[in-house]
Amino acid sequence: MCKTVATKHTSTELSGTGSVWVISATVTVKFETPAASRVLDDGAKVSGIEYTDRASGETQTVSADGIFVQIGLVPNSAPFADLVELNSLGEIVVDGHCRTGTTGIYAAGDLTTVPYKQIIIAMGEGAKAGLSVFEDFARGNIAALPR
């Protein structure tokens, strides 16, 4: 178990879908809002991270045995807003077969309401969407696109 967790966030507020932040008496959680950063290493493994604090403009260094990088979770769904239903987070609403509420439009991956935005889950959802298209076509629920 680690004694300190330092979270570097691009905003001054915590946000995200289903984020869970646990703080216990045995772990210190540091919340900071860095700008550009640089991973430090000793030639064999990670040794820390160097970043510029947005508030002060000062360069800070944090020693670390490991670094996790996460990108933002804001879905880029605006181009589809007039075609399918979006929830309050901007995710495309899908059923368990990756179908949207619009016949013939399917969605998969981080853009949808499926929980756990992970590459492996998005890959599986893409496969499921493809199978759903095949099934709907085979059953006559959708027609082939004109050539």
From TrEMBL:
Keywords: Flavoprotein, Oxidoreductase
Kinase recorded as keyword: no
One function term, GO molecular function aspect: oxidoreductase activity
Domain FAD/NAD(P)-binding: 50-126
Transmembrane stretches, start-end: none
UniProt xrefs under Pfam families: Pyr_redox_2
InterPro entries reported for this sequence: FAD/NAD-bd_sf (IPR036188), FAD/NAD-binding_dom (IPR023753), Ferredoxin-NADP_redctase_2 (IPR050097)
Entry-linked PANTHER family: THIOREDOXIN REDUCTASE 1-RELATED-RELATED
Official protein name in the record: FAD-dependent oxidoreductase
